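Journal club side-thread
Mid-discussion, someone asked how the predicted structure for our own chain would compare to the paper's figures. Pasting it here so we can look after the session.
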Amino acid sequence: MSDNIEIRSTRPGGSNPTSLQVFRDNLLVNCYSSPLPKPADIITLVQQYKDISFSKAMYYICDVCGYSYYSDYKNVKEEVDPILSFLDSIEPKTEVKDEVPLRKIDESVLNMYISMPNWKFLEEGISCEAQKLFEVGYSLNDNCITIPVRDDLGSLVGVKGRTTLDYEKLKISKYWYPVPTPKSLILYGLDKTYEHIKSTGCVYVFEAEKSVQKAWSYGIKNSVSIGGHELSETQVLKLERLGVEIVLAFDNNVTSDEIKDEARKFVLRDNVYCLFAIKNTGVMGEKDAPIDHGSEFFMKMVQEDKYKIRV
Protein backbone atom coordinates (compact mmCIF):
# COMPACT_ATOMS: atom_id res chain seq x y z
CA MET A 1 0.00 0.00 0.00
CA SER A 2 1.17 3.50 -0.80
CA ASP A 3 2.08 5.78 2.10
CA ASN A 4 0.20 8.52 0.25
CA ILE A 5 -3.07 6.67 0.84
CA GLU A 6 -2.84 5.24 4.34
CA ILE A 7 -0.76 4.74 7.45
CA ARG A 8 -0.38 1.27 8.98
CA SER A 9 0.68 0.40 12.51
CA THR A 10 -0.05 -1.94 15.38
CA ARG A 11 -2.91 -1.16 17.72
CA PRO A 12 -2.08 -0.26 21.35
CA GLY A 13 -1.13 -3.48 23.10
CA GLY A 14 -1.17 -5.43 19.86
CA SER A 15 1.52 -7.42 18.06
CA ASN A 16 0.50 -7.20 14.41
CA PRO A 17 2.48 -4.26 12.93
CA THR A 18 -0.11 -3.63 10.17
CA SER A 19 -3.42 -4.30 11.95
CA LEU A 20 -4.34 -0.63 12.28
CA GLN A 21 -5.15 1.27 9.09
CA VAL A 22 -5.66 5.06 8.97
CA PHE A 23 -6.61 6.64 5.64
CA ARG A 24 -4.84 9.95 5.17
CA ASP A 25 -7.44 11.64 2.96
CA ASN A 26 -10.41 11.32 5.34
CA LEU A 27 -8.88 9.95 8.58
CA LEU A 28 -11.20 6.96 8.64
CA VAL A 29 -9.85 3.94 10.51
CA ASN A 30 -9.90 0.15 10.24
CA CYS A 31 -8.54 -2.14 12.94
CA TYR A 32 -8.46 -5.78 11.89
CA SER A 33 -7.32 -7.33 15.16
CA SER A 34 -9.75 -5.42 17.44
CA PRO A 35 -13.06 -4.24 15.96
CA LEU A 36 -13.95 -0.56 16.41
CA PRO A 37 -17.48 0.84 16.30
CA LYS A 38 -18.55 1.48 12.70
CA PRO A 39 -17.99 3.85 11.06
CA ALA A 40 -14.71 4.60 12.79
CA ASP A 41 -12.40 7.59 12.40
CA ILE A 42 -9.33 8.94 14.13
CA ILE A 43 -11.44 10.35 16.97
CA THR A 44 -13.17 6.99 17.50
CA LEU A 45 -9.72 5.40 17.69
CA VAL A 46 -8.53 7.79 20.37
CA GLN A 47 -11.79 7.44 22.31
CA GLN A 48 -11.54 3.64 22.22
CA TYR A 49 -7.94 3.18 23.30
CA LYS A 50 -7.66 6.06 25.75
CA ASP A 51 -11.17 5.45 27.13
CA ILE A 52 -12.14 9.12 27.02
CA SER A 53 -15.05 11.21 25.77
CA PHE A 54 -15.47 12.63 22.29
CA SER A 55 -14.40 16.15 23.25
CA LYS A 56 -11.43 14.93 25.26
CA ALA A 57 -10.36 12.89 22.25
CA MET A 58 -10.66 16.03 20.10
CA TYR A 59 -8.60 17.97 22.63
CA TYR A 60 -5.95 15.23 22.75
CA ILE A 61 -5.60 15.20 18.95
CA CYS A 62 -5.31 19.00 18.85
CA ASP A 63 -2.71 18.92 21.62
CA VAL A 64 -0.60 16.22 19.92
CA CYS A 65 -0.74 18.06 16.59
CA GLY A 66 -0.01 21.46 18.15
CA TYR A 67 -3.40 23.05 17.43
CA SER A 68 -5.57 25.10 19.76
CA TYR A 69 -8.85 23.34 20.57
CA TYR A 70 -10.56 26.69 21.13
CA SER A 71 -9.17 28.71 18.21
CA ASP A 72 -11.20 29.53 15.12
CA TYR A 73 -9.00 27.88 12.53
CA LYS A 74 -11.39 28.75 9.68
CA ASN A 75 -9.34 31.92 9.24
CA VAL A 76 -6.11 30.06 8.43
CA LYS A 77 -4.97 31.16 4.94
CA GLU A 78 -2.25 28.67 4.10
CA GLU A 79 -2.82 25.15 2.80
CA VAL A 80 -5.12 23.37 5.23
CA ASP A 81 -3.80 20.36 7.09
CA PRO A 82 -6.13 17.37 6.55
CA ILE A 83 -6.48 16.92 10.31
CA LEU A 84 -7.67 20.53 10.66
CA SER A 85 -10.23 20.19 7.88
CA PHE A 86 -11.43 16.92 9.39
CA LEU A 87 -11.84 18.39 12.88
CA ASP A 88 -13.60 21.41 11.38
CA SER A 89 -16.13 19.17 9.64
CA ILE A 90 -16.71 17.09 12.78
CA GLU A 91 -17.19 19.97 15.23
CA PRO A 92 -17.86 23.28 13.42
CA LYS A 93 -16.99 26.29 15.50
CA THR A 94 -19.84 28.56 14.39
CA GLU A 95 -23.12 26.87 13.59
CA VAL A 96 -25.59 29.64 14.30
CA LYS A 97 -25.36 33.00 12.58
CA ASP A 98 -24.07 35.77 14.86
CA GLU A 99 -23.30 33.30 17.66
CA VAL A 100 -19.96 33.74 19.40
CA PRO A 101 -17.26 31.11 18.79
CA LEU A 102 -16.42 28.62 21.51
CA ARG A 103 -13.70 30.11 23.65
CA LYS A 104 -12.15 29.40 27.01
CA ILE A 105 -12.85 32.13 29.57
CA ASP A 106 -10.60 33.04 32.48
CA GLU A 107 -11.89 31.64 35.77
CA SER A 108 -11.51 35.08 37.37
CA VAL A 109 -14.78 36.08 35.66
CA LEU A 110 -16.60 34.18 38.38
CA ASN A 111 -15.12 36.52 41.01
CA MET A 112 -17.68 39.12 39.88
CA TYR A 113 -20.48 37.00 41.37
CA ILE A 114 -21.42 35.93 44.87
CA SER A 115 -20.83 32.20 44.99
CA MET A 116 -23.53 30.66 47.17
CA PRO A 117 -26.70 28.57 46.80
CA ASN A 118 -29.86 30.51 45.98
CA TRP A 119 -33.10 30.17 47.94
CA LYS A 120 -35.23 30.37 44.79
CA PHE A 121 -33.47 27.38 43.26
CA LEU A 122 -33.70 25.52 46.58
CA GLU A 123 -37.48 26.02 46.58
CA GLU A 124 -37.60 24.54 43.10
CA GLY A 125 -35.90 21.34 44.27
CA ILE A 126 -32.24 22.05 43.54
CA SER A 127 -30.25 21.09 46.64
CA CYS A 128 -27.51 23.24 48.14
CA GLU A 129 -25.01 20.48 47.33
CA ALA A 130 -26.02 20.49 43.65
CA GLN A 131 -25.93 24.28 43.49
CA LYS A 132 -22.41 24.27 44.92
CA LEU A 133 -21.30 21.58 42.46
CA PHE A 134 -22.70 23.53 39.50
CA GLU A 135 -21.35 26.81 40.97
CA VAL A 136 -24.66 28.68 41.16
CA GLY A 137 -24.10 32.28 42.23
CA TYR A 138 -25.64 35.73 42.15
CA SER A 139 -24.83 38.97 40.31
CA LEU A 140 -25.63 42.13 42.27
CA ASN A 141 -24.97 44.28 39.21
CA ASP A 142 -27.33 42.36 36.97
CA ASN A 143 -29.88 41.22 39.58
CA CYS A 144 -29.71 37.64 38.38
CA ILE A 145 -28.87 34.14 39.53
CA THR A 146 -25.74 33.03 37.68
CA ILE A 147 -25.10 29.62 36.15
CA PRO A 148 -21.51 29.14 34.91
CA VAL A 149 -21.43 27.17 31.65
CA ARG A 150 -18.60 24.69 31.21
CA ASP A 151 -17.85 22.61 28.15
CA ASP A 152 -17.17 18.86 28.08
CA LEU A 153 -13.59 19.43 29.21
CA GLY A 154 -14.65 21.43 32.26
CA SER A 155 -13.42 24.73 30.84
CA LEU A 156 -15.45 27.85 31.62
CA VAL A 157 -17.01 29.06 28.34
CA GLY A 158 -19.84 31.36 29.46
CA VAL A 159 -22.29 32.42 32.16
CA LYS A 160 -26.08 32.23 31.97
CA GLY A 161 -28.28 34.45 34.14
CA ARG A 162 -31.80 34.07 35.52
CA THR A 163 -33.21 37.48 36.43
CA THR A 164 -34.80 37.94 39.85
CA LEU A 165 -36.69 41.03 38.69
CA ASP A 166 -40.33 41.03 37.52
CA TYR A 167 -39.43 40.18 33.92
CA GLU A 168 -43.05 40.15 32.73
CA LYS A 169 -43.80 43.61 34.09
CA LEU A 170 -40.47 44.99 32.88
CA LYS A 171 -40.79 43.12 29.56
CA ILE A 172 -37.27 41.71 29.77
CA SER A 173 -35.94 38.22 29.21
CA LYS A 174 -36.18 35.73 32.06
CA TYR A 175 -32.88 34.14 30.97
CA TRP A 176 -29.93 35.77 29.26
CA TYR A 177 -26.13 35.51 29.04
CA PRO A 178 -24.03 38.06 30.99
CA VAL A 179 -21.07 36.23 29.43
CA PRO A 180 -22.18 34.93 25.99
CA THR A 181 -21.57 31.32 25.00
CA PRO A 182 -22.43 29.30 21.88
CA LYS A 183 -25.03 27.05 23.49
CA SER A 184 -25.40 25.04 20.26
CA LEU A 185 -21.89 23.66 20.84
CA ILE A 186 -22.48 22.66 24.47
CA LEU A 187 -24.05 19.73 26.28
CA TYR A 188 -24.43 21.41 29.65
CA GLY A 189 -23.37 19.27 32.60
CA LEU A 190 -21.47 16.67 30.58
CA ASP A 191 -18.20 17.50 32.34
CA LYS A 192 -19.81 16.27 35.58
CA THR A 193 -22.24 13.61 34.32
CA TYR A 194 -20.15 11.78 31.71
CA GLU A 195 -19.03 8.89 33.91
CA HIS A 196 -22.58 8.38 35.20
CA ILE A 197 -23.90 8.37 31.63
CA LYS A 198 -21.39 5.73 30.59
CA SER A 199 -22.00 3.57 33.66
CA THR A 200 -25.81 3.64 33.29
CA GLY A 201 -25.76 3.32 29.49
CA CYS A 202 -28.32 6.13 29.19
CA VAL A 203 -28.45 9.91 28.91
CA TYR A 204 -31.50 12.04 29.66
CA VAL A 205 -31.54 15.16 27.48
CA PHE A 206 -33.29 18.12 29.11
CA GLU A 207 -33.94 21.60 27.78
CA ALA A 208 -32.84 23.65 30.80
CA GLU A 209 -29.63 23.73 32.80
CA LYS A 210 -31.76 23.79 35.96
CA SER A 211 -33.20 20.39 35.05
CA VAL A 212 -29.71 18.84 35.10
CA GLN A 213 -29.10 20.37 38.54
CA LYS A 214 -32.52 19.22 39.78
CA ALA A 215 -32.00 15.68 38.48
CA TRP A 216 -28.61 15.56 40.21
CA SER A 217 -30.29 16.66 43.45
CA TYR A 218 -32.59 13.61 43.15
CA GLY A 219 -29.70 11.24 42.54
CA ILE A 220 -30.28 11.07 38.77
CA LYS A 221 -26.81 11.97 37.55
CA ASN A 222 -26.87 10.83 33.89
CA SER A 223 -28.28 13.89 32.17
CA VAL A 224 -27.36 16.92 30.06
CA SER A 225 -29.23 19.96 28.76
CA ILE A 226 -29.16 21.61 25.34
CA GLY A 227 -30.48 25.08 26.25
CA GLY A 228 -33.77 24.63 24.36
CA HIS A 229 -35.64 21.93 22.46
CA GLU A 230 -33.80 22.24 19.14
CA LEU A 231 -30.69 20.11 18.80
CA SER A 232 -27.74 21.43 16.83
CA GLU A 233 -25.59 19.24 14.60
CA THR A 234 -22.77 19.37 17.13
CA GLN A 235 -25.05 18.38 20.02
CA VAL A 236 -26.43 15.47 18.00
CA LEU A 237 -22.92 14.31 17.15
CA LYS A 238 -21.77 14.51 20.76
CA LEU A 239 -24.82 12.57 21.95
CA GLU A 240 -24.30 9.87 19.34
CA ARG A 241 -20.62 9.60 20.24
CA LEU A 242 -21.55 8.76 23.83
CA GLY A 243 -22.63 5.33 22.55
CA VAL A 244 -25.55 5.07 24.99
CA GLU A 245 -29.35 5.17 24.95
CA ILE A 246 -30.57 8.72 24.31
CA VAL A 247 -33.81 9.81 26.00
CA LEU A 248 -35.20 13.22 25.00
CA ALA A 249 -36.89 14.59 28.13
CA PHE A 250 -38.20 17.89 26.80
CA ASP A 251 -40.76 20.20 28.40
CA ASN A 252 -44.44 19.28 28.24
CA ASN A 253 -45.29 21.93 25.63
CA VAL A 254 -43.13 20.26 22.97
CA THR A 255 -45.36 18.37 20.54
CA SER A 256 -44.85 14.83 19.23
CA ASP A 257 -44.19 16.24 15.75
CA GLU A 258 -41.47 18.53 17.14
CA ILE A 259 -39.87 15.59 18.94
CA LYS A 260 -39.92 13.58 15.70
CA ASP A 261 -38.26 16.49 13.88
CA GLU A 262 -35.45 16.46 16.45
CA ALA A 263 -35.09 12.67 16.25
CA ARG A 264 -34.62 12.89 12.47
CA LYS A 265 -31.36 14.71 13.09
CA PHE A 266 -29.78 11.52 14.47
CA VAL A 267 -28.07 9.18 12.04
CA LEU A 268 -28.30 6.23 14.45
CA ARG A 269 -31.91 6.24 15.63
CA ASP A 270 -32.24 2.75 17.09
CA ASN A 271 -31.36 4.02 20.56
CA VAL A 272 -33.31 7.31 20.55
CA TYR A 273 -36.32 7.53 22.89
CA CYS A 274 -38.46 10.27 24.39
CA LEU A 275 -40.43 10.90 27.56
CA PHE A 276 -43.90 12.01 26.47
CA ALA A 277 -46.71 12.40 28.99
CA ILE A 278 -49.61 10.20 27.91
CA LYS A 279 -50.32 7.99 30.90
CA ASN A 280 -49.01 10.65 33.32
CA THR A 281 -50.30 13.74 31.55
CA GLY A 282 -52.54 15.05 34.36
CA VAL A 283 -49.71 16.07 36.69
CA MET A 284 -47.60 18.15 34.34
CA GLY A 285 -48.21 21.79 33.53
CA GLU A 286 -47.75 23.14 30.02
CA LYS A 287 -44.14 24.23 30.48
CA ASP A 288 -43.08 21.63 33.03
CA ALA A 289 -40.07 19.38 32.47
CA PRO A 290 -40.45 15.70 33.42
CA ILE A 291 -38.04 16.20 36.33
CA ASP A 292 -40.03 19.12 37.82
CA HIS A 293 -42.31 16.86 39.89
CA GLY A 294 -39.64 14.93 41.72
CA SER A 295 -37.66 11.75 41.26
CA GLU A 296 -40.59 9.37 41.92
CA PHE A 297 -42.72 10.95 39.21
CA PHE A 298 -39.75 11.10 36.84
CA MET A 299 -38.96 7.42 37.25
CA LYS A 300 -42.66 6.61 36.82
CA MET A 301 -42.53 8.39 33.48
CA VAL A 302 -39.40 6.45 32.57
CA GLN A 303 -41.29 3.22 33.31
CA GLU A 304 -44.65 4.15 31.75
CA ASP A 305 -44.13 7.02 29.31
CA LYS A 306 -40.83 6.29 27.56
CA TYR A 307 -41.34 5.67 23.87
CA LYS A 308 -39.09 4.71 21.00
CA ILE A 309 -39.32 7.50 18.45
CA ARG A 310 -40.63 6.44 15.04
CA VAL A 311 -39.88 8.91 12.25
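Post-session note: The chain has a mean pLDDT of 85.
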